[in-house]
């Protein structure tokens, strides 16, 4: 309970921030964008992991306000980077299923894009498989609204969820994010490498891009490139960084 009221206060007192992890295009070796990851700098406890506070935000309903803050902040930052003359990019934000189902996410996103005069392709929403397998008309409508306005989606933690992949035909998604549990050990576990290869092949035949998460070394990056994976992110290149560090990293990279 104290963490929940702490979150409410933290939202008012600007204790939340987004950290940015670059995504690398494995063919061109350019930075194609960033994943924005929420951080809470608690006045007494220091940084608290989203793994701790997101579930509490979900069960208390505060995820609606928190998620709205994330959408607005990511759009504000994207606008700022455009104005600063940074090269083409997109910012991916994580959307909780509860947030998606309870909030008017399409309206929130459109308002944030409009307010910041941000073309929709700068924003990407990371959704979970568990959300997309739900057969609800409202969900389908919301996704279609966002998609028709040009907002892109990717499926987070792909491969850990469900075996029914019918939703890939039903919804227009841009990319599959291959879960780090397969990527991290693909170098010396042939089973994991086989799963990654299969996901990349399936995605490619469906016309979808792939994003490998959790790349921690050069050999994994080389393997992924050889398999035709589109993008990758991980500690090998950079951890999620505060905005100033992310921009510095980007400028150094270019
Ligand atoms: O960055 P880190 O490893 O600490 O993230 C832990 C978990 O929190 C991950 O599952 C990540 O997707 C999730 N997460 C990070 N930022 C957000 C956010 O803004 N919204 C939601 N819903 N989840 C987030
Ligand atoms: O659930 P989601 O995929 O959004 O979570 C991403 C999480 O993975 C974040 O907490 C982020 O900090 C973490 N992460 C990003 N790159 C790496 C990596 O290379 N290794 C490990 N162990 N974690 C990573
Ligand atoms: Mn994610
Ligand atoms: Na993920």
UniProtKB/TrEMBL annotation:
<protein>
    <recommendedName>
        <fullName>cyclic-guanylate-specific phosphodiesterase</fullName>
    </recommendedName>
</protein>
<feature type="domain" description="EAL">
    <location>
        <begin position="1"/>
        <end position="254"/>
    </location>
</feature>
């Amino acid at each position: 309970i104290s963490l929940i009221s702490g979150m409410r206060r933290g939202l008012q007192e600007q204790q939340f921030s987004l950290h940015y992890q670059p995504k690398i295009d494995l063919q061109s070796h350019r930075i194609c964008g960033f994943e924005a990851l929420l951080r809470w700098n608690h006045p007494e406890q220091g940084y608290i992991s989203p793994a701790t506070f997101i579930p509490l935000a979900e069960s208390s309903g505060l995820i609606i306000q928190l998620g709205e803050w994330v959408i607005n902040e990511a759009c504000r930052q994207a606008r700022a980077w455009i104005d600063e003359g940074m090269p083409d990019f997109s910012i991916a934000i994580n959307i909780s299923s509860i947030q998606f189902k309870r909030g008017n996410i399409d309206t929130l996103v459109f308002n944030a894009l409009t307010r910041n005069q941000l073309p929709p392709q700068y924003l990407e929403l990371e959704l979970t498989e568990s959300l997309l397998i739900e057969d609800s008309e409202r969900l389908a409508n919301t996704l279609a609204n966002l998609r028709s306005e040009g907002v892109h989606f990717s499926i987070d933690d792909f491969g850990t969820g469900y075996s029914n992949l019918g939703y890939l035909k039903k919804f227009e998604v841009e990319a599959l994010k291959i879960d780090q549990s397969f990527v991290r050990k693909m170098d010396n576990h042939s089973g994991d490498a086989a799963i990654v290869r299969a996901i990349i092949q399936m995605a490619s035949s469906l016309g979808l891009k792939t994003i490998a998460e959790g790349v921690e070394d050069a050999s994994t990056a080389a393997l992924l490139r050889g398999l035709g994976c589109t993008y990758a992110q991980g500690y090998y290149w950079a951890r999620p960084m505060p905005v100033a560090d992310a921009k510095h990293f980007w400028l150094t990279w270019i």
